[in-house]
Amino acid sequence: MARRRGSQETLLARGIAAPRKASVRLPILAGTRRLITRSPRSIRLARLGQDRVRGKWLILCVLFLASAVVYGAVVGGQTARAYDALTGGIEHLAVAAGFGVKRITLNGQLHATDAAITAALGAGPDTMMLGFDTDAAKARLEAVPWIRHAQVMRLLPSTLQVVVEERTPYAIWQNKGQTYVVDAEGVVLAPALREAYASLPLVVGEGAGKSAAQLFDQLTPHGDLTQNLVAAIRVGDRRWTLKLASGLEIMLPDDNVGEALTSLAKLDQERGLLKRDIAAVDLRLLDRVTVRLRATASAAPPGGAPQAEVPTASTKTAKGKT
Questions:
Q1: Which ranges in 256-311 belong to alpha helices (H)?
Q2: Model confidence over 158-204: pLDDT tens digits?
Q3: Is residue 307 located within the same domain as residue 176?
Q4: Cα–Cα distances in Å, from 241 out to 77, 121, 247, 248, 284?
Q5: Integer Cα distance of 62 and 259 in angstroms
Q6: Which of 82, 209, 220, 239 has the most CB atoms around it within 10 Å of its CB?
Q7: Structural domain range at position 109
Q8: Which residues are 190's β-sheet partners?
Q9: What residues have CB less than 8 Å from 219, skipping those under 6 apart?
Q10: Are 174 and 203 within 8 A, CB to CB?
Q11: For the whole model, what pTM was predicted?
Q12: Per the structure, how many domains does the chain have?
């Protein structure tokens, strides 16, 4: 009994709680004495006790230094400096007490880089959780081109949870020798190589990025055109010229694009217009379709490639009324 009490007193002197009967035991073999191991919980508590002692000393030191700076600043008439010193001391105390940012979880990231998100978030190991402005962090994250919406939440004591919704790449926009990936609203997401987004349509010219979604909505019923489309060229930020894989160019009007495309589809169905050896189709006039044939080295008139006009349904209706 005296020996057992001595061992318990030794454990208590070391800052380790004496194990209870429910502690982990080794198997008892015949002819051997009982051995009681240290409980993992007791060891963990002992370590936490050591950390708490260190934390208390750190807090006391920070308090002392902050108090000294505040006192000196107040005596010297520098109240602003005193306030900064006090708030800085409080932040250091909170971080020392375990309320600093130690972990950041991120969901929804696809294209935005880690560097861009980290810089926009503006949180680090010295950031106090309770004083971190989540609304300001949300605004900074949503200023990153790829990020449409962001949500930032504090999970005490030391975790920031970030959820982002990214913009969807819609088209490749080429303008003044530069190439960018844009979303359906025309927001420039990042510089891009055409090869990296080969599945996206190419739009070219001033204003093409912002007007692309409207154009492709009008092209949706005309699958043959979209499948063979190489590029959509914005002219004067007013109208489009479509360039197909065959080299054929289709000049669309400023307005009534849907009606012009319907007339073209009807002519192609009735006369196989797009399968002929033509260089361009001009749909800029609603009452007629002008076709420019391909010029060849052997048969090209002095004025250039020959042109032909094909009346549309609008033309026939107008003649019938007269």
A1: 257-271
A2: 889 999 999 999 999 999 999 999 999 999 999 999 999 999 999 99
A3: yes
A4: 72, 43, 12, 10, 10
A5: 75
A6: 209
A7: 103-166
A8: 181
A9: 225, 226, 229, 261
A10: yes
A11: 0.65
A12: 3
